[in-house]
Amino acid sequence: MTSAGNIVIVGAGFGGIAAAIELQSHGFTDITILDAAPELGGTWFHNTYPGAACDVPSHKYSFSFAQRRDWSRLCSPQAEILDYLRDVAHSYGVDRRIVPNTTVTSCAWDDAARRWTVTAADGRTFDAYAVVIATGQLNRPVTPSIEGAGTFTGHTFHSARWDHDHDLRGKRVAVIGTGASAVQFVPAIAPDVARMTVFQRTGNWFMPRRNRPYPAAVRAAIKHVPGLQAYRRRYLTQYLELLTAMIRNPDRLGRLGRALSSAFMRSQLKDPELRRKIWPDYTFGCKRVLFSSTYLPALQRPNVDVVTAPITRITPTGVQDAEGGHHEVDTIIWATGFATRDFMFPMAITGTGGRSLADVWAKGPHAHLGMTVPGFPSLFVMYGPNTNTSGGSIIFFLEAQARYLRLALTQVRERGASAIDVRQETEAASDAAVQAGFTGTAWTRCDSWYRDEEGRIITNWPRYMRDYEKATATLDPADHVFLP
Ligand code: N01
């Protein structure tokens, strides 16, 4: 079956919904949104682990054009965020454009027809003159291949695909990985489990985040005091930009970040042995700074242990560490993150002359402003290479990208062109500028999921939110070729 969606958006998370609303609001009405899941939400549909919430304050982790004044707390829980996205998509009427349960396997450009064919796993095809890939950087959970993993006779699952049917009460649980996800669910489940063993490979820098429900008076003030909401957003923007400033200037402002984080961590970690174990050994901000006031106390519970010896093997009954310890458990929870280097792959994307994006990106992904790649006309990637943020709100970036791709497609429409293709030299120059932007920053000072095998930082934007906003605010036609 061939459908007639003129613009196909792949992914119905925050990115896809932002693009659909922006395009629709500017007269692009023939839009189809495809998503592998049974409903919209993306990350916030899939990540339902206990304690899941944003760690960027909701007044900033929300669309500028759809501000809510009744968030329950500073950083809203997953269900509240998902409800918000559903409400926004519904109020703008883009939810009816979603085709759920549609896993896109390929997007192929036809040089003669100057159109894209988007194909789903079940064989359905969708014709398009423009394609927006809004599948994000953090969509495919990764479970590392550790010897013996298949022999474990207990229960296992990944944090991003939480098994709510598995009752953890009274169980001995291993948590492998201590990133942003683990830091949220460990304190949420620690009181219920019989024993918890947390396997930490690398320590983290922490900042406080209590995240209690707003008192009624605060909620009422945010709701009713004129200008307070706008002031909060401005304040939060500056706060987030300050975090980026600390990461960008590790030897000056970064020292302040490290001092603040150290003081907070010391105040939370009373046990010197545990403090020594979990203390990070890298520059503040090199990896994601984690916001939690409940994780470090949870590690000090009598039923929780932290193991920093490397894992050597999974056995039928537990986890073996390099210091000879064998940790018998009933359940292993993998909190080991996502295939961040893969972006939209294994989706097959072929552009002009049948060139595959996988080949073009063989030495690492790169795109003009993280969005456009020469030879892939009217293909836009949202949350693509070098557009992740360590300090800002990703929603801000997604909105900027939605506006930019709308500018591009407006140019196509106004010129009566069939497609827009970024020039090779434009993309090369912007990639060089992005990479130069990392010089001297904290991101370069340790290994992280931001980097590829060669050490090139491929996920993050090296500057401030305001710089990305500026860079994407206009589109210079001279930087592009318009196909007739
Ligand atoms: O994943 P991660 P995540 N043996 O990749 C460890 C976003 N997010 O799901 O640091 C042992 O950060 C790995 O160790 P190391 C946010 O952008 C946002 O927690 O590589 N350990 C690390 O500790 C975040 O950055 C929110 O040495 C292994 C952990 O697993 C991103 O999602 C909430 C291992 C993986 O941490 C990913 O976070 C949650 C192995 N073989 C997440 N392999 C918000 O609030 C990996 N690890 C918006």
Task: Give an overview in words.
With 484 residues, the protein is an alpha/beta fold. The chain folds into 2 domains: 2-140 and 339-483, FAD/NAD(P)-binding domain, CATH 3.50.50.60; 149-205 and 251-334, FAD/NAD(P)-binding domain, CATH 3.50.50.60. It has 13 helices and 22 strands. It has helices at residues 14-25, 43-46, 78-91, 180-189, 216-224, 228-248, 253-268, 272-278, 295-299, 357-360, 394-415, 424-436, 465-471; strands spanning 2-3, 7-10, 31-34, 98-99, 104-110, 115-120, 125-128, 130-133, 155-158, 172-176, 195-199, 206-207, 290-291, 304-307, 311-315, 318-321, 326-328, 331-334, 348-350, 379-381, 419-422, 480-483. Bound molecules: 3-acetylpyridine adenine dinucleotide. 3-acetylpyridine adenine dinucleotide binds at residues 54-55, 138, 144, 146, 176-182, 184, 199, 201-202, 288, 311, 335-338, 449. 3-acetylpyridine adenine dinucleotide binds next to α4.
